[in-house]
C-alpha cells in the first residue's frame, strides 16, 4: 500500500471491508477501491436516501466536522444578532401607540408575537415598517434554532442524522417555511422602501393592519408551498449529501417529484426574486436620479447643498436604509442562487457534479442568510443603533440621539 498526501487513498486488490477504512496517524483516510460513501449508514437512512449519494468514495470526516463547527458558530452569530433585534422590541414597559391597539384583539396578550409586535418602548421603532423587520428577525431566529443544533450533533457526534426520519422531515419542513417566509418579508420591506423612496408622499402608506396582513401572508404562503412534500402527496423529503441532513428530493426521477421541484423553484425563488429585482432596481434608480438632480441644482445656484440639517438627516436616513436593504438582498441572492443552480443541475444537468460535499454548500449558504439582516441593520440602521446605544450602552455603539441633532442650515456658498 502506497501512502500519499491525499486525504483519501484507495487500496488496490482489496474487497470492500469496513475494517479496512481507517485514518492513519497523519489523519489520512484509507479505503479499498470498492468503498463508497455511506457504507455504514443505518438502514433507516438507506431507505430514505437517493442511490446517487452511494456512488461516491468515502468522505474524510474532517469535512463534516468542519461543517458542524461552522454551523455551531453560525448558530452563535445568528442567535446573537437576531436576539438583539428582538430584545430591543421586547424591552418594554409601555404599550404601543393607539393605532396599534386594535391589532391586539387578533393575538393573545401573553404570546411572544404580541410582545414583539406591540410592546415597544422605543418610539422611533414603533412603525409598521419595523413590524416587518422584527418579524424577519423572529423568523430567522426560529429557523436557526431548528437547523443548527441538530446539524451540529449529527455532523460532529453521530456522523449520520441522529434523530430519525420524522424529525429530519420536520427539519426540512421548518427550513422551508421560515426560509421562504423570510424571503417574502424582505419583499414587503422592499415594497415599503419602494413606496417611501420612489413615490414619497404619494405612495401607499403601510398601516399596522397591512403590516400584520403581510406577515400572515408570508408564512401562509410558505406553509402552503411546503406542506405537500411534508405530507408526501407531492414530492418527498430525503437525506441528502453527507446523509446528516434532509432536503426536498431534487434527485427524483419521476415526473411527480420533478414537477414539485420546478414548482418550488418558480414560486419560492423566481417569483419572489422578480419582486425583489423590481422594487430595488426602482429604489436605486430613484436615489441616483434624486442625488444627481440635487447636485446639478446646487451647482447652478453656486452652493454646496440645498438641504438643511434636518432635511439632510431625513434624506440620508432613507438612502442609508435603501442601501442597507439592497445589500441584504444581494446577499440573499448569493445565498439562494447556488441552491437553485444545484437543484436545476440535478434535474437537467450532469448529476455527477453534485457530490455529497457540493450538495451541502448551497444548503449551508441558505442558513448563512439568516445572519445577514440583523448584522446589517445593527451596523447601519440609525434608529436601531440609537436604540441599542440606549438599552445596551456597554456595547459602545455611541449612536447620537436624533433629539440631540441640531437643525440649521448647512448651505454654504462655494468660492470661485
Keywords:
three-stranded mixed β-sheet; GPCR_Rhodpsn_7TM; elongated; 416 residues; 62% helix; mainly alpha; disordered N terminus; G-protein coupled receptor; two-stranded antiparallel ribbon; sensory transduction; photoreceptor activity
Q: Overview of this structure, please?
A:
This protein is mainly alpha-helical. It folds into two domains: 1-35, no CATH class; 43-404, Rhodopsin 7-helix transmembrane proteins (Rhopdopsin 7-helix transmembrane proteins), CATH 1.20.1070. It has eleven helices and five strands. The strands form two sheets. Strands 1-3-2 form a three-stranded mixed sheet, with no helix packed on it. A two-stranded antiparallel sheet has the order 4-5. Keywords: Chromophore, Disulfide bond, G-protein coupled receptor, Membrane, Photoreceptor protein, Receptor, Retinal protein, Sensory transduction, Transducer, Transmembrane, Transmembrane helix, Vision. InterPro entries: GPCR_opsins, GPCR_Rhodpsn, GPCR_Rhodpsn_7TM, Opsin. GO terms for molecular function: G protein-coupled receptor activity; photoreceptor activity. It is a multi-pass membrane protein.
